Amino acid sequence: MPKIRFSASSLEHALAQDASGASTKVVWDTETRGLGFYANRQRSGSFFVQFRVGGRQRKVTLGRLNELTVPEARKAANEIMVAARQGRDVIREQRQTHVATLTLGAAFEEYHAALKRRAVSPRTLTHNEGVWRRTLSKHAGRELGSLNKREVRSWHTGWGDRGPTAANHAGRLLRTVYNYASKRLDDLPPNPCVAIEWFPEREQRDVIAPNDLPEWWEKAASLDNPIDVTP
């Protein structure tokens, strides 16, 4: 892969060259070991540093060209390389820090944003927002990794005052938010919602909305009826 001495002008030149290319271009700095730069066809690019620690190759994105100067990128890369030589995995440290500081509220927002990206139904989004507001929002500031089985079970029992279905909805939302965070974070403890003793719920019947009644009547009338109710 090509190596150049990083500067604002040399990186702008790399971006201009790649504007007509077919894929992302990678160039390496001749002055700072492990410091690289992605250039893409949209004439934007990002600094990254590549290093080895514990026998594994790792890569960390430092920031975009319009966010970091070359000296700042070199300084950040050098700090990461020094940490790697000391046997420290900065990626793991960053994840551990995120786990330690991720709150329940932030985890819910991340999950909710993911649902929006997947274009789930507005009804699902509204339902989750309502469950969150009525039951879980008061715990928004709690660090997610600090939740334990005893208190989650206690929360669910308390939510029973709102009814078994409402309590179970809150428990399921908490369990789902925690599972979503667990998929992205290696060091999050096991989901404490396994301790919930779910309330039995009465079977619910779907209610036909008034706007749907004409279609329902039409389909019902089209069904074969072996019973003659003619007087």
Q: What overall form do the CA principal axes indicate? A: elongated
Structural class based on helices, strands and sheet pairing: alpha+beta
Radius of gyration from CA coordinates: 27 Å
Distance between the termini: 90 Å
Order of helices and strands: EHEEEEHHHHHHH
What composes the largest sheet?
5 strands, mixed
List the helices and strands and how they pair.
Layout: E1 3-4, H1 8-18, E2 25-29, E3 35-39, E4 45-53, E5 56-64, H2 70-85, H3 90-101, H4 104-117, H5 122-136, H6 149-159, H7 164-184, H8 213-221
Parallel strand pairs: 1-2
Antiparallel strand pairs: 2-3, 3-4, 4-5
Helix pairs in contact: 4-7, 5-7, 6-7
General description of the model:
With about 230 residues, the chain is α+β, with helices and mostly antiparallel strands. Strands 1-2-3-4-5 form a five-stranded mixed β-sheet. The mean pLDDT is about 85. The chain has eight helices and five strands, in the order βαββββααααααα. The chain is about 45% helix and about 15% strand. Helix 4 packs across helix 7 (about 165-185), helix 5 (about 120-135) crosses helix 7 (about 165-185) and helix 6 (about 150-160) packs antiparallel against helix 7.
